[in-house]
Amino acid sequence: MSLAMPPVCSATVANRKEIAAGLRSIVPDGVIEIADELKPYESDGLTAYRQPPLVVVLPETTEQVSRVLAWCHREGIKVVPRGAGTSLSGGALPLADGVLLGLARMNRVLDIDYVDRVAVVRPGVTNLAVTGAVEGEGFYYAPDPSSQIACTIGGNVAENSGGVHCLKYGLTTNNVLGVEMVLADGEIIRLGGRDLEAAGLDLLGLVVGSEGLLGVVTEVTVRILPTPETARAILLGFPTTRAAGDCVAQIIGEGIIPAGMEMMDKPATHAAEAFVKAGYPLDVEALLIVEVDGPPVECDILLETIAGIAAAHGATTSRISQNEEERLRFWAGRKAAFPAVGRLAPDYYCMDGTIPRKRLSEVLERMAELSRQYGLGVANVFHAGDGNLHPLILYDANQPGQLEKAEAFGADILRMCVEVGGVLTGEHGVGVEKRDLMPTMFNEVDLAHQQRIKCAFDPELKLNPGKVFPQLHRCAELGRMHVHKGQVPFPDLPRF
């Protein structure tokens, strides 16, 4: 592992059997400590980095989660929460001296209310399973990450996940109404509820996207939406990525907000077509999939307008889906693009940054220059509508130095995103992957304020340490005042 992680406490490691026994007293049938059985948990979706956990515990109830966290808090043991392990930023990377708290067994749909249009689920319910639970009544859950068949709602909350339809319907934060959460010391709290607006500070907005640093989510209340009356997609091919990028900018500039707008460059398009046989044109440099939904007449008008914009930008392919089967086929290649790109190289490094849409063409061209500079291929698959890039850097981990080159290439891409007015991440989170790049976007004051929030929720800094912050300061260093026997330091100073 080339990333520095928190120092390992040798005393904790030496105490493994006693720790496992303590956890087994809380979750009798859900503790894993044998080395071979820990292997599946040594990494998440960022497979370049691996580290077996000290021990794994798999609770089934909120009470068990509470008791596990309270026990670890008393014993001073670090805890790393984990959903399905699909994180692409190393957010669930374990620690050698930490307990991995897996939530996959908490996988029940607790309640569905079609009148209020909400569903209440445990964190281990998969994203796609929420839609599966409500589609019979004509509803669905809007956020749809490409990993939705496997990724879980708890992990979606941790990373503020998106998906191809987040352009119109929002990310996880726009579709979560409330959570039940267990704090580091075992206290159970509730934030939000079933209402669209909650009173007071927006603590729920703080928790969504907090990457497991503030607490462990054990229940989620999500919005469900009526299935659109009509959904149709148009497949557009362009001779250059600049033409495709300019087309994206004009579609949004015309005031059209598609349900989804995704782009793939030539390497990604060829890989997806070979993998899925979706009928993609292979003579284009960039492929754009644009979907609209709503009443049929509205969809017809929007598709006609989009086709006209694409033609003005030199589109050589323009094909509108004629039925639901064809629409799903258009999307099948995009949904399978990440695994499909695995055919191009032994390994790939998936990045995640967001830029202003108007800079899309420029960034893609500069990315091609970086590809030549580093001597590594790159395939681009991304949410074009909101400027969320997912460059896939191709490399071979068996070749000495290639992983390091891929990391440097990826870091340059993310620095470029910030340089053009964007941000380090769109939906994958910071984790360990972007942790050391945080100063590129935030100054010391910004980071200190973020860490004060961490201290408010987790003063002992035991939840998911080593993630997000390039240097995690002790809470005392950030201004927490020590009161000894009721006496504050410098009592003569005025305090407000």
Topology, please?
Layout: H1 10-14, H2 16-24, E1 31-32, H3 35-38, E2 55-57, H4 62-75, E3 78-82, E4 98-102, E5 109-113, E6 118-121, H5 127-134, E7 139-140, H6 153-159, H7 166-169, E8 176-182, E9 188-192, H8 203-207, E10 216-223, E11 225-226, E12 230-238, H9 241-253, E13 260-265, H10 266-276, E14 286-294, H11 296-312, E15 317-320, H12 324-335, H13 337-341, E16 347-350, E17 353-354, H14 360-374, E18 378-383, E19 388-389, E20 391-395, H15 402-419, H16 438-441, H17 444-457
Parallel strand pairs: 2-4, 3-4
Antiparallel strand pairs: 1-2, 5-6, 6-10, 7-11, 8-9, 8-10, 12-14, 12-15, 13-14, 13-18, 16-20, 17-19, 18-20
Task: Summarize the structure in words.
It is a single chain. The chain is of the alpha+beta class. It has four domains: 21-102, 2-Layer Sandwich (Uridine Diphospho-n-acetylenolpyruvylglucosamine Reductase, domain 2), CATH 3.30.43; 109-226, 2-Layer Sandwich (Uridine Diphospho-n-acetylenolpyruvylglucosamine Reductase, domain 3), CATH 3.30.465; 230-339, Alpha-Beta Plaits (2-Layer Sandwich), CATH 3.30.70; 345-437, Alpha-Beta Plaits (2-Layer Sandwich), CATH 3.30.70.2740. Helices cover 33% and strands 19% of the residues. The chain is built from 17 helices and 20 strands. The protein has helices at 10-14, 16-24, 35-38, 62-75, 127-134, 153-159, 166-169, 203-207, 241-253, 266-276, 296-312, 324-335, 337-341, 360-374, 402-419, 438-441, 444-457; strands spanning 31-32, 55-57, 78-82, 98-102, 109-113, 118-121, 139-140, 176-182, 188-192, 216-223, 225-226, 230-238, 260-265, 286-294, 317-320, 347-350, 353-354, 378-383, 388-389, 391-395. The protein has a seven-stranded antiparallel beta sheet, sandwiched between helices. The chain has a five-stranded antiparallel beta sheet with strand order 5-6-10-8-9. Strands 1-2-4-3 form a four-stranded mixed beta sheet, covered by helices on one side. A hairpin with a 5-residue loop joins strand 8 (176-182) and strand 9 (188-192). It is globular, with a radius of gyration of 24 Å. The two termini are 47 Å apart. The model has no long low-confidence stretch (mean pLDDT 93).
